[in-house]
Design brief:
58% helix; Fumarase C, Chain A, domain 2; 1% strand; mainly alpha
Length: 350
């Protein structure tokens, strides 16, 4: 087990140090702790925690890409977002407005000569997609909260002493939301990959060098990083197929319909991990693109995130092995360091 400091310890030693007597299980209590949905619920709670952080990081990645691609932030205005009052969309747009504030790059193309009327969907619609993912997560949190307050053992001992058989162990409520969350994980990643690809295409990147390469035609720049994203996104789309739609009878047809919630939980974990890598690659790419916009400077918040990402990346230059940089950026995404850096400027993001 892990103690109060988060250190992995022998359970007996940690409990003794904390003055806690270990619980001695009586008849059936061990099964009660393991029966029903407890394991898949634990997986759901862990995935929700990670997704909440990842969706804020996805807003950061989108802001950096909008800035790097000389996109417009007018579409993120609060009055436009309020025309479609989904809570997650409003939250995501507010994050983008905060992250893009005081950007020299954004200000550089606000004048009457600007021809950018409508950006591509992957830029313009990022609050709608990231926001819908947030609302899906909110529904999952509602289900998890109910389940955390539930008794799912079978049979169950009631307060009046009756022992009754029941079906509360069935995992359908948890399995459904585990499957549900895999859909926005795939879609947020898909939009992230599309923004990355746009930064690498000279025809769509508003003046950036092809593939952000040091010497286009000789160097590959971030081309292979986008290949990596594309491969992960393809896998995430497969993982978005529901496990809970399947069922295999067992126990001589007594258990003739099961939730497959554990399968849904396992594939959601893979999806969450994949989303973290995809968003990390977008941030690495956008940080490089922002470097290439010099002498114009990005906004203070995105610049702070770029500096945090610089701990694991080299400045623009000839081709190099990108895997260590991607791994380092993924660690920074997972532990929240990049969002924390931006929040030193913006204050808490949602």
């Amino acid at each position: 087990m892990r103690d109060a400091r988060g250190e992995l310890r022998d359970a007996g030693e940690a409990l003794a140090e904390a003055g806690i007597a270990p619980v001695k299980l009586a008849a059936k209590e061990g099964l009660a702790l393991l029966n029903g949905t407890d394991g898949m619920l634990g997986m759901l709670v862990l995935a929700m925690h990670d997704l909440r952080r990842l969706l804020t990081t996805a807003d950061l990645a989108a802001a950096m890409s909008v800035e790097a691609l000389l996109g417009t932030d007018r579409v993120f205005a609060a009055d436009l977002q309020e025309l479609r009052p989904h809570p997650g969309q409003g939250t995501s747009a507010a994050n983008l407005r905060a992250l893009l504030g005081a950007s020299e790059i954004m200000e550089s193309h606000r004048g009457p000569d600007c021809t950018r009327v409508q950006d591509a969907y992957s830029l313009r619609c990022s609050p709608q997609v990231n926001g819908a993912a947030r609302d899906t997560l909110a529904h999952a949190e509602l289900v998890a909260g109910r389940e955390l307050a539930a008794a799912v053992d079978n049979p169950v001992v009631l307060p009046d002493g009756r022992v009754e058989s029941n079906g509360n162990f069935h995992g359908a409520p948890i399995a459904y939301v585990l499957d549900f969350l895999a859909i926005p994980a795939a879609d947020v990643a898909s939009m992230s990959e599309r923004r990355t690809d746009r930064m690498l295409d000279r025809a769509r990147s508003a003046g950036l060098p092809a593939f952000l390469a040091d010497d286009p035609g000789v160097d590959s720049g971030h081309m292979i990083a986008q290949y990596t994203q594309a491969s992960i996104v393809t896998e995430l789309k497969r993982l978005a197929a529901p496990a809970s739609a399947d069922s295999i009878p067992s126990s001589a047809m007594q258990e003739d319909h099961v939730s497959m919630g554990w399968n849904a939980a396992r594939k959601l974990r893979r999806a969450v991990d994949g989303l973290a890598r995809v968003v990390a690659i977008e941030i690495l790419t956008a940080a490089r693109a922002l470097d290439l916009r010099a002498p114009l400077r990005p906004g203070p918040a995105t610049a702070a995130a770029g500096r945090a990402a610089a701990r694991g990346r080299a400045p623009p230059g000839p081709d190099r092995y990108l895997a260590p940089e991607i791994a380092a950026a993924t660690d920074l995404v997972r532990d929240g360091s990049l969002v924390a850096a931006a929040e030193t400027v913006t204050g808490p993001l949602s």
